[in-house]
Amino acid sequence: MVKTAQTRLPVLDLIRNRWSARAFSEKNITDEQILTLIEAASWAPSANNEQPWRYRYALKESPGFQHMWECLLPGNQPWTRKAAALVLCTAKKNYTRNGQPNYYAMHDAGMANAFLILQATEMGIYGHIMAGFNKEKLQETFQLAEDETPVCLIALGFLGDPEQLDEPFKTRETTPRTRMAIEAIIPDSPQF
Q: Which domains does the chain carry?
């Protein structure tokens, strides 16, 4: 069940077909597939070409997967158990070239994650980006550098049956997707 977005204006099918799935099948993701996603992320734009994003990943049933899973908040743990992989995205807070603060690091990491998720969608892999995690536990567990901050965890997998989910996740999985009208995100005078 792909929850294709019903857009008012024509947008790329790749964008319309991307959604944050929670029901994953038993099908595994390979290292090569994960590395392809990270390769796609590496081509995202960034301030001064700094590329501040960093990725760590763990495949299902590996110790790293369990460590990442344990850093999730309770609301994300039940449905992520069946994910084929978990990915930790972090951002370097300072520029490598001069040590100065990179105020755009989180934005740039978000751009990289968008590229990663769109590549995944093209490959039939669905991703769910999560902010519900214990930041301090992630920093300690993965011994993040002092200038590295967690951005998100991403659950990846192939689509499974929503019936496998408990509530409230089952309903969330089957409810049609919605977005605010574009008028709600355009200032009163969009043209200056």
A: 28-175 (3.40.109.10)
